[in-house]
Write a structure and sequence with these properties.
By secondary structure, the protein is of the alpha/beta class. β1 (about 40-50) and β2 (about 55-65) form a beta hairpin. The termini are far apart. It has helices at about 1-10, 20-35, 75-80, 85-105, 120, 125-140, 160-170, 190, 200-205, 210-225, 240-250, 265-275; strands at about 40-50, 55-65, 70, 110-115, 145-150, 175-180, 195-200, 230-235, 255. Helix content is about 50%, strand content about 20%. The structure holds ligand C2E and calcium ion (3 copies). The site of one calcium ion has 4 residues, from loops. Ligand C2E binds near residues 72, 73, 77, 117 and 236.
């Protein structure tokens, strides 16, 4: 990564600051950590609103670095994107996630797993064949996999992104539009892309009890999604009132601290055991 590190440094060389230095060091440490498989996946359960049944879980990357301690995903994902490490990072996450999915299904825990993709993954022509090969290796069905993409991923090279999404969808996996409402994409994207699920951003969900316009946005997003036969997930549900409200508005699924926080795979095992009683 010598050249990349050099390019990276040159961006910041005009302001040799601690921020730039940290970033530069993070790039090297992250590249090494991915290679040595030092990252981990944690997962956060999702539930059906009406029945309360456990139906899926979102896979979230975690990095506890020897040098930097716990680095927040928002920071190291951005570092990976800027340094061109996203393909390697996603490869690791997908492998870990598919392996987990196989173990869960062997235990009779028949949930789906949602995996985040970044814009670099969506422009990478190798992504579809990698996903298919990995699913075959782990003997899992892609029908149980949802790929989450954000609206901002759509802005770059629309043709490449749409082509990859169509190919992904044709393998049987589902595509979810993440952080819905925070980007700039037009609603026309919804009909142009193979989207089966909208995740309504937690900035709307969190304030909807107090803020009328947030409430209306959630209400009408659910209506629009229904009209387009797209499922909705409310993310960031932090209390009982919000759970009740999104259920009443017709959201299909929920995810949030009120129901379950992201957990390591060990904690998730314990959590499953407790639920089973
Ligand atoms: P995201 O995809 O929107 O993921 C949901 C984030 O909301 C997670 O933050 C989760 O811990 C947090 N969250 C869940 N329930 C609640 C709640 O009730 N209240 C609040 N306030 N927060 C809640 P996390 O794990 O820190 O991840 C941050 C972001 O990093 C993710 O946002 C996603 O954009 C990115 N990310 C994480 N893992 C991956 C990955 O494997 N690949 C890619 N491309 N991005 C990832
Ligand atoms: Ca997500
Ligand atoms: Ca989200
Ligand atoms: Ca986010």
């Amino acid at each position: 990564y010598g050249l990349r590190a050099y390019e990276y440094l040159s961006i910041y060389s005009s302001e040799v600051d601690t921020f730039g230095r940290r970033r530069l060091a993070l790039v090297g440490a992250l590249a090494q950590a991915i290679k040595n498989r030092e990252l981990e996946i944690h997962i956060q359960p999702q539930f059906e609103c009406v029945t309360g049944a456990l139906c899926g879980a979102e896979v979230l990357a975690r990095w506890n670095s020897e040098t930097f301690g716990v680095v927040a995903p928002d920071e190291f994902i951005e570092v990976a994107e800027e340094a061109g490490l996203m393909a390697e990072l996603t490869k690791f996450i997908v492998e870990e996630a598919f392996s987990l999915l196989r173990r869960l299904h062997e235990k009779g825990v028949m949930i789906s797993l949602s995996i985040n993709l970044s814009v670099q993954n969506l422009m990478d022509p190798r992504i579809v064949s990698f996903v298919v090969t990995c699913a075959e290796a782990q003997l899992i069905s892609l029908n149980d996999v949802i790929f989450e993409v954000t609206e901002t991923s759509m802005s770059d090279d629309m043709e490449a992104v749409i082509s990859n999404l169509n190919q992904l969808a044709s393998t049987g996996c589902r595509v979810a539009l993440d952080d819905y409402g925070t980007g700039y994409s037009s609603l026309a994207y919804l009909s142009r892309m193979p989207i089966q699920e909208l995740k309504i951003d937690r900035s709307f969900i969190g304030q909807m009890q107090r803020n009328t316009s947030d409430y209306r946005i959630v209400e009408n997003t659910v209506k629009l999604a229904r009209a387009l036969q797209i499922q909705t997930v409310a993310e960031g549900v932090e209390n009982e009132n919000t759970l009740g409200t999104v259920t009443r508005l017709g959201c299909d699924r929920v995810q949030g601290y009120y129901l379950a926080k992201p957990m390591s795979l060990t904690l998730f095992d314990d959590w499953l055991m407790k639920r089973a009683g």
